[in-house]
What does this fold into?
Amino acid sequence: MRNLMILSACLLGACGGEGDGKKTAEAQAATVEAGQWETSFEVTAFRSTDKTPPAVKAAVGDKESGPTCIPAGGEASPPGELFAGPGYQCQTQSSYIRNGRINVSLKCSRSGINGDIMQTVQGSYTGTTFEGTVDTLSYLTGPGDFAMARKFSGRKTGGSCAAPGAAEKKAA
It folds into this structure.
């Protein structure tokens, strides 16, 4: 009977096979890798929270993507824009990115909008990919407050990032 229980557990995936080694090592990456990243976002829920037209134009199903850089040395606490999406400027309030888990709280702003846009990010990662959800609530000084949920994914697309201002220095 005991052998039958062990065999059942192995059949259900509890016992590792030969091909699992690479997947396990990737899943247990200590941090996301520095370099260029491409992130994609899809709105899964969107609504006004103050019964006025939302300050951000969005609808369920809307998609957007964009590049972001994680500088060398910033792997444990990457820029908030990596998880917030294009058009947001963010400060990280709290960050836990370790052992394949992402849990980040961001305080963001957006051009033309007065007030705070708070974002909570939860997800998982390997060294070169990540995915998860972003829940957003706005606290604006006027009308237009909104709540939004999005799913996101990202993949590393390149090595080191250009230093800020490098392009302007080259042009001069």
